[in-house]
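Bug #77: duplicate submission created two jobs. Keeping one. Sequence:
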Amino acid sequence: NVVSPANDFANAFPRHIDFKRGGLITGLVGIAMMPWEMLKNADRYIGWLVGYAGSLGAIAGVLIVDYWLLRKRTLDLASLYLTEGTYTYGSGYNGKAISATVIGAVIAFAGAFWEPLAPIYNWSWFVGFGLAGGLYWVMMRGTIPPPPQSGVPTARVASPR
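Kept job's structure:
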């Protein structure tokens, strides 16, 4: 499980962190989390895992709604590498996507701290996914520009048969 976060650190700060240094940082973070303490008590570990799933569900909801529903599986490849492309939004960040993700994750995670919402927390991945995806869809409807008609290559992923 070191490869993905090591790449994340290396890609987030490429001038300062290479893959090897990213792996070392990942190891230190893993030690700081003291995983053996979570494994001592299965309820504690499962509780952490359920909360983590809520945030991952919220991220997945936004990504899936954006790609499958709003953009209809069309990706503007050239704009991925342009500072003023389709995916630039405000200063390079899609505030609506961030808001939907945070709201979905917070509500999915709220049941860990407030007893009346405990059933929501038990289903945190689905709650985060549905809430964040639904909010994102509502906020972004009608704001997605159509893919370029000429001059810029686009990609459409074919469905497996």
